[in-house]
Amino acid sequence: GVVEVAREWYEGGEGAGGAVDVRAVGELRRPVALGEIKKAAAAGEVEGMKDFALIRQARLSVMPVPVEVWDWVCEMGGGFVQDGEVGEEEAEG
Q1: pLDDT tens-digit profile of 26-63?
Q2: Dihedrals φ, ψ of 38, to 5°?
Q3: 15: burial class by Cβ within 10 Å (0-12, 13-18, 19+)?
Q4: Which residue in 54, 20, 23, 24 sits closest to 37, CA to CA?
Q5: What are the angstrom distances between the C-alpha of 92 and each of 28, 78, 81, 85, 87?
Q6: pTM of the model
Q7: Closest Cα to residue 54, out of 45, 63, 46, 42?
Q8: What is the C-alpha to C-alpha distance for residues 84 and 48, in angstroms, rounded to an integer?
Q9: In what order do the strands lie in the sheet with 80-82?
């Protein structure tokens, strides 16, 4: 799924570290595997991909995504469908 930050990082409480609140905004038509992203980064397919936080620390769950990387991920994922939109398959069926 695709999310946006609803509340920036804040202290989570005693011993809990911090948190970022997110809200779901949609999904890609097909998942894009981390392996595909790493392969594109290694090949230099996308400007800024080698410096993308997901490549350096794959366990990060919330991170900024550079525009060039976002565009590539959306293309590889067959497009981005926002919540509430009807996908092509649903519209045809």
Answers
A1: 999 999 999 999 999 999 999 889 888 888 886 767 78
A2: -65, -40
A3: exposed
A4: 54
A5: 18, 17, 15, 13, 9
A6: 0.73
A7: 63
A8: 31
A9: 2-13, 17-28, 80-82
Question: What average pLDDT is seen over the chain?
Answer: 84
DSSP summary character for residue 85? P
Sequence-ordered list of residues with C-beta below 8 angstroms from that of 53, at least 6 positions apart, any chain: 60, 63, 64
Residue 73 near residue 34, CB atoms below 8 Å: no
Residue 72 contacts residue 32 (beta carbons within 8 Å): no
Residue type, 88: E
User: What 8-state DSSP symbol labels residue 10?
Assistant: E
Q: Which residue stretches of 1-93 are H helix? A: 34-43, 53-56, 67-76, 88-92
Closest CA to 19 of 33, 5, 38: 5
